[in-house]
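name: query_chain
kind: protein
chains: 1
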Amino acid sequence: MNIDPEMVRRAQMLLTLDHSLPQVKEILLREGYSDDQVADLIDATEEVLNYFVPPVFDDNKIAIDIRHSNKDLDGDPSPDLLVDRFSGKIELLTPHLQETWRVANEIRKTLKCQCQYL
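structure:
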């Protein structure tokens, strides 16, 4: 992987300014950097960020691990969602995966129905 160091510095600056990865990708592409290099950089950055930002667990949260087609089944389980036991707030740990959104929406519907009956 041969990535332009100027592009890496630009991406670092944009991330420091609190731009999301999709925004950084769009900006780099608009600035004329190669599609392949930008995609490689964003993928690598996302991988590193997911590795270095472990989920925060406590006794008040329920962790949900979704089986994704692209997830390693033999690897350590890594949760995709955290649901607060008291407030019902859902935290998406893998928002880039479509299945995470589907499961979160189903949980929200279920919690809404349960609240109506209480």
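note: The chain has two domains: 3-49, 59-113.
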